[in-house]
Amino acid sequence: MMRNCVCGKPIPHNRQLCASCILEPEYEGDPIHYGVDQTKWPEWLTDWMRSYQKELNAERDYHHLSIDVNEGIVEAKPQFKLNGCRTETHLYEDREKY
């Protein structure tokens, strides 16, 4: 799962900010660089991060459900199962026929 940084850049799922946003601030209140220390982040950024993480968690927890827009019913998505075996040699015995 990919995430987006507060600036909009895509980042890996285990990061909170992109490389350019995580640089140490050049001066007090630098609007572009926030640093690694979350206690020094602006309040709006910590609120945004908390809200975004909650949204990602909800998406992860309910990814197996689908919503019928017309009826408003939530039902489980169909689970597709592979039939047959993939390791047995008989799969290759009649290969010339197909």
Would you identify the regions where 5 or more consecutive residues have pLDDT less than 50?
A: none
Mean pLDDT: 76
- Percent helix among the residues? 10-25%
Number of E strands? 4
Task: Give the class from helix and strand content and strand pairing.
Answer: alpha+beta
Total of helices: 1
The profile of the biggest β sheet is: 2 strands, antiparallel
Task: Give the strand content.
Answer: 5-15%
Q: How is the largest sheet built, in terms of strand order?
A: 1-2
Categorize the overall geometry: elongated
Radius of gyration: 23 Å
Give the SSE order as H and E letters. EEHEE
The separation of the N and C termini measures 39 Å
Keywords for this structure?
98 residues; two-stranded antiparallel ribbon; single chain; alpha+beta; two-stranded antiparallel sheet; 1 helix
Topology:
Layout: E1 3-4, E2 10-11, H1 43-61, E3 65-68, E4 73-76
Overview of this structure, please?
With 98 residues, the protein is of the alpha+beta class. The protein has a domain at 3-64. The chain has 1 helix and 4 strands; from the N terminus they run ββαββ. The protein has one helix spanning 43-61; strands at 3-4, 10-11, 65-68, 73-76. The strands form 2 sheets. A two-stranded antiparallel sheet has the order 1-2. Strands 3-4 form a two-stranded antiparallel ribbon. A hairpin with a 5-residue loop joins strand 1 and strand 2.
Can I get a quick summary?
The protein has 98 residues and is α+β, with helices and mostly antiparallel strands. 19% of the residues lie in helices and 12% in strands. Strands 1-2 form a two-stranded antiparallel sheet. Strands 3-4 form a two-stranded antiparallel sheet.
